[in-house]
Amino acid sequence: MRNFDSLIVWFISLLFISCFSSAFAFEKESEKIFRADNQREELRILSNTDLEYMEPIIKAFQQQNSSVSVLYTVASSRELYRAINNESADYDVVISSAMDLQMKLVNDGLAQQHDSDEVDKLPQWSRWGNSLFAFTQEPAVLLASRGGFGNLAMPQNRKELIELLRDNPEQFYGKVGTYDIRESGAGYLFATQDSRQSDAFWRLSEVIGSLSPRLYCCSSAMIKALRSGEILLAYNVVGSYASAVLDENEDGTIVSLTDYQIFMLRTALMPKTSRQPGLGGLFIDFLIDAGNRDLIDQQDGLPPINGDMFKKHQHYRPIALGPGLLVFLDKIKRKRFIEAWTEALLQP
After folding, report:
1. Fold of 25-136+266-314
2. Separation CA 100–CA 188 (nearest Å)
3. Which of 38, 35, 69, 74 is nearest to 53 (CA)?
4. pLDDT tens profile 138-185
5. In the chain, what are the domain boundaries?
6. Do the Cβ atoms of 303 and 318 come closer than 8 Å?
7. What pTM was computed for the model?
């Protein structure tokens, strides 16, 4: 009888531990394994980049490394940060568009260093030491519905956008979308960096807030809403996602504002907990290799690092990797920024 009682206690304890652990495990959005025919090693990647954009890159990497299987896990930028910072998840490469959260992982000593000839070729603004590396430069753009504008002219800068929305509230009421920065890491990054460029960000936020805006988790949700007619404008959409989805004959159009355009850098790092740092470094070199940049651009529509472009277009502003990204992650500053944003966007 005692053995039976002990067995019951053991089972209940095991069940409790299992439930407790799963309740606190980071949340995955999707996961896929790309098996190699003659597998000898497995590369584990955690990313907030949708699988459809990374799949061609992974397959191209496997063509050059035929014995490597790849486990690709997708999570939101905040869940990704939580997985490494709170749970010490043992992935070999971490990829994210939330540059500030990536910088914090590096700053807190949670990333390994990686030295290579490919790393040395990157522009200084696209790497941080030998721990964080950018492999794409993607603009934040305005997405608009041609049909929804009617006879109204498309705005070419933020001043014109503000005037357009102020002068036509009945047309755009409930029809403007942007990120919910309380939930979206990339959205928070865009908003904070936008605010550093010009006071126009806060004026625009107040105007959008007066129009009962719709708030979204991510660029893909905003693109979907515009295509369905739910909204007529979406502000700060990741341009590479929009370009990949919108057909030239569609109603949706990408507007590159000419006063300034910020560029997000999609970055990769190797966490300290990596079980295969050699493989992680190999994959990072593949991503940043100048010889593979055309492949990434052509197959995925993810614009590769190109320093010359910023020299030719002065209003293009890359968000440089560096300690400045940590400013708005300070708890007090983040609280104040979100409070100001909430007051502007969520007007009664």
Report:
1. D-Maltodextrin-Binding Protein; domain 2 (3.40.190)
2. 9
3. 74
4. 999 999 999 999 899 999 999 999 999 999 999 999 999 999 999 888
5. 25-136+266-314, 138-263+329-345
6. no
7. 0.83
